[in-house]
Structures are given as structure tokens and as C-alpha cells.
Design a protein that fits this description.
transmembrane helix, about 25% helix, Nucleotidyl transferase, alpha/beta, Nucleotide-diphossugar_trans, seven-stranded mixed beta sheet, UDP N-Acetylglucosamine Acyltransferase, domain 1, Spore Coat Polysaccharide Biosynthesis Protein SpsA, Chain A, single chain, eight-stranded mixed beta sheet, about 500 residues
């Protein structure tokens, strides 16, 4: 039997999720909605499948391929988006002497195709509609003589309406039209909890209530209450907490102390240290509250991040910067002797000075608000910059500083900021070197340093950071690194 799958919803009702992919490719428990439909067809031994697609058509074809993965054959037909299925069928060369199946592939249903076809055999006529609820037609068996106009029942209008056709079967199974963000959120939790019997979930139960995909790292102690699904290649910090029902899709990082409660986390998302996510859908930098519909775009990558945009995400970049910092510290050991001599020459009574700076580690204040942790470091008491700041290399090992980042400031200096633009620098990590440290004199006003840091925070990228690293290496051999008049940064 041949199947025509309509997967051409435009998805305005699911914005902003559909700004990144089509409705059909939105994941339900780590698997695209359309893929659940394909598996249901294959389970019913239907392998000749025509997919009607619209938005992100190239991405859909690239991800699903020719159907070989399922032992099926796919044919792709392009739609203008939410077209009347009867108009599309008239453009296709459908068999007139055999039955074929039409269905929507951008709604979610339990695998009931075999049940529907079996029950349809008991009904006469040139078509039989299958209704998952009394409000939503999602299947149609077309026989010889079937008129294309019948398929208007399958058209997506954004509203569920009672079927006007007589020849229909009400199927006893769960379904979701995914007509809203709340519906999409709930469908993920329902599938994870087993309420859509028969759907294949890509993972195995490691402990009671916790299902995980391959190559994921999670401690069972992180599940504090309820059920949780964690997809493939995820890393959940042992000190992170999952509460109530939680679905975490593929390639997600949940950092230390973060709490995820009654939420759906979509692929390639980073959730930062101590971040609390509750009753939400999170995808990259976007947090959607399903109770209010509010959409919050978070620009601070240390809170929420898109792992596809930031190739070196916070977890990986932190390890890399510490490793490189260790290498630089070992390479700089001969300079420590020179720094000691220079400091004793400059001020014998106090060769080292203590300083307190705000770093990259996150802590909570007395009210439970997130803030950067203040750390203590030392300065060699010498005006030679390259020697003066050698002790800050140790801070790269503890994670308080990155090798590349904004200029470190003391808490008192940062408390003087008033304008909002002055706080833009907080979106980037604090570093040992960066454009401000390399390009500005220590004598320029703090406002100019904050402006430089703000530009860096908005424009930074991995390639730019590598450029600053190289610029820093070259600066080691410059006159400025070894002799600067006046105070230093």
C-alpha cells in the first residue's frame, strides 16, 4: 500500500520553535514528529511513502534521506504550506485501482494505523476517515473511486473542527494536534510517561523513572522526583537536579547546581550553573514559559546557550582554557624567578600585593540571586606588566579567569556602573587577555575600558578569541609588555 503523508504546516502557532525548524521536525522525546509517523507506517508494513513538505524542505530531506533507514522508499513533494490536501492529490499520479492511505505527519498519534486499516475493512464506500478524537481527522483510507475533495478533512487550519463526513471511525488512542506551545510541551511529557502506547522511545531505563540515550552522562541522584528522559550525548552535572516530569533532548549540557522542573529542553542547549528552569520549553537562548506564553531571549551565554552557535560551549571551553593555562604556567616558571627579583628590587618590604576580582564562577547571594564569585589573586609589585600579572595564570586553572575574555575588575569598580550598556560586558567571560588588555592603555578611563569590553562581548567568537591569543603571544616580545610608565590595568 502507498501512503501520502502531509507534513507542510507552517507553524505560526508554535513560534518561536518554528523559526528554527518545521513542525514536522520538532522533536518529541528526541525524535522528530514526522519520524514517529514513519515508524508507525513501517510497523503496518507500508513502505512506499510520499512526503508532502514545505518549510525547511531541504533540511527534512537531508535528515530523513531516501527511507533506507526504515527499509522504505520516500518521495518528496513540495507544498506552498498548509495547502488543501485535495489540491495536492490532484497534482499526483495516484493509483485508481488500489487503496492508498493519506494522513498528517505533523501531528502526534499512537501507532494505530494497523488498527484503523483493520476496522476500515468492515465499512463500505470509496473512503474511510479515521478520527483520533471527535474533533480532529488525521487518517483517510482512499479506495477506487475516491474523490480528492474528501481529503479536505486533513487540511491544517490551526483549529480543530468536527468532521462533516459520515464514513468514519473513532479510534481509541491518544493523539495531540500540537496546536500550541502548551500542547507541544505536554505531548513531550506524555510520551515520556508512556501515555502514547506503542511509540518507540530512543533510550533505555537505567534506574526507576530515568530513561537515557546513548553516550550520555547523568547520575541517578540528579533525578529528585518524578520521571525524566535524557537523550543522546547529554551531560548532566552530578549536582544538577531534575524535578517532576522532565524531557531533555539530544546534545544538552546542564551545568552544576542547575534545576530543571516540569520542562522540555530541546537539542543543543546549554543550561548554566545554578539556573532554575521551571514549567518551560528551552531551546538554545530562548526560554518559553508554557503557563504564560512569555518568550525570553537570554543573551548571557553563561545562563542559557546554543551549542550549535557557540562551538566551544562553556563546559568544553572551560576545560580547554584550564589545560592551556597549565601549559602557559609551566612555560612561565623561569619568569617567576625574574618577577621575584624585580619585585624585591622595586619594593623589598612587599614583593606581592593581594587583589580581589570578580571572576567567572557563579554563586548565589543571600536572596538566592546569581552573581559572579569574587576571588583573590596576587600581583608582583613591579611596573613590568608581563611580570606583574604572572600570578593571574593560577586563576585560569581554577576557572576564575579564562585565557581570553573581558578585563577583570574589582567588586567596588563594578559597583560604580550605572548605565545598562556598562553591564553588557557581563555577557562574556572574564579573561587574562583580550582586546581591552591588549589594545588600551592602562591610563584610559574606566568607561572606555567598559566600552571595549562591551564590543567584545557582543562580537566575540572562537576565531576572534584565537586571534587574541596569537596577538597576546606576539605582545610578549613587544616593548609595552616589559616597560610601561604609570599604573597598569
Amino acid at each position: 500500500m502507498k501512503a501520502i503523508v502531509f507534513a507542510d504546516r507552517l507553524g505560526q502557532e508554535l513560534t518561536p520553535l518554528t523559526e528554527k525548524t518545521s513542525v514536522a521536525m520538532l522533536p518529541i522525546v528526541s525524535k522528530p514528529i514526522l519520524e514517529h509517523t514513519i515508524e508507525s507506517l513501517v510497523m503496518s508494513d507500508i513502505r512506499d511513502i510520499t512526503l508532502v513538505v514545505s518549510a525547511y524542505a531541504d533540511t527534512i530531506e537531508e535528515n530523513l534521506g531516501t527511507g533506507n533507514r526504515w527499509g522504505a522508499k520516500f518521495t518528496y513533494i513540495l507544498s506552498q504550506g498548509e495547502e488543501n490536501p485535495s489540491d495536492i492529490i490532484q497534482r499526483l499520479d495516484m493509483p485508481t485501482d488500489e487503496s492508498w492511505l493519506a494522513l498528517r505527519g505533523d501531528v502526534l498519534r499512537s501507532p494505530v494505523i494497523s488498527q484503523f486499516l483493520e476496522q476500515a475493512q468492515t465499512l463500505p464506500g470509496d473512503y474511510v476517515l479515521g478520527l483520533m478524537t471527535a474533533q480532529c481527522a488525521s487518517l483517510c483510507l482512499c479506495r477506487s473511486g475516491c474523490q480528492p475533495s474528501v481529503l479536505a478533512e486533513l487540511r491544517w487550519t490551526g483549529e480543530t473542527q468536527p468532521s462533516t463526513q459520515d464514513n468514519q471511525i473513532i479510534l481509541e488512542a491518544n493523539d495531540s494536534c500540537l496546536e500550541s506551545l502548551q500542547s507541544y510541551h505536554q505531548a513531550n511529557l506524555d510520551v515520556m510517561a508512556g501515555r502514547f502506547s506503542g511509540l518507540i522511545i530512543p533510550g533505555k531505563q537505567t534506574v526507576l523513572g530515568l530513561t537515557t540515550g546513548p553516550r550520555s552522562q547523568i547520575s541517578p541522584k540528579s533525578l529528585k522526583q518524578g520521571l525524566a528522559f535524557v537523550g543522546a550525548t547529554c551531560r548532566i552535572h552530578p549536582e544538577a537536579e531534575l524535578l517532576n516530569d522532565v524531557v531533555i533532548n539530544n546534545n544538552v549540557i546542564v551545568d552544576r547546581g542547575a534545576t530543571v522542573q516540569s520542562s522540555v529542553i530541546l537539542p543543543n542547549t546549554y543550561i548554566g550553573e545554578l539556573v532554575d528552569v521551571k514549567n518551560a520549553i528551552v531551546w538554545g537562548n530562548d526560554l518559553i514559559r508554557v503557563d504564560t506564553g512569555a518568550v525570553l531571549h537570554v543573551s548571557e551565554a553563561f545562563l542559557l546557550g546554543d551549542l550549535q552557535t557557540h562551538v566551544l560551549n562553556n563546559g568544553i571551553a572551560g576545560v580547554l582554557h584550564r589545560f592551556l593555562g597549565l601549559g602557559l604556567l609551566i612555560a612561565s616558571l623561569p619568569l617567576w624567578i625574574v618577577a621575584l627579583i624585580a619585585a624585591l628590587w622595586h619594593k623589598p618590604s612587599q614583593p606581592l600585593k593581594k587583589e580581589q576580582l570578580e571572576g567567572n564562577q557563579i554563586t548565589l547571594d543571600e536572596l538566592g540571586n546569581r552573581q559572579r564569585k569574587v576571588f583573590t589573586t596576587w600581583l608582583w609589585n613591579t611596573p613590568i606588566p608581563i611580570l606583574r600579572y604572572l600570578p593571574r595564570l593560577i586563576a585560569t586553572l581554577t576557572g576564575d579567569l579564562r585565557l581570553v575574555g573581558t578585563l577583570p575588575f574589582s567588586p567596588s569598580q563594578l559597583a560604580e556602573r550605572i548605565a545598562e550598556w556598562e553591564k553588557v560586558r557581563d555577557e562574556a567571560p572574564v579573561g587574562l587577555i583580550g582586546p581591552t588588555q591588549l589594545n588600551l592603555s592602562a591610563m584610559v578611563p574606566m568607561e572606555e575600558k567598559l566600552m571595549s569590553d562591551a564590543f567584545y562581548a557582543k562580537l566575540r567568537s572562537t576565531s576572534k578569541d584565537l586571534g587574541y591569543l596569537w596577538q597576546g603571544v606576539c605582545a610578549l616580545f613587544s616593548r609595552r609588555a616589559w616597560w610601561v610608565q604609570g599604573q597598569c590595568h
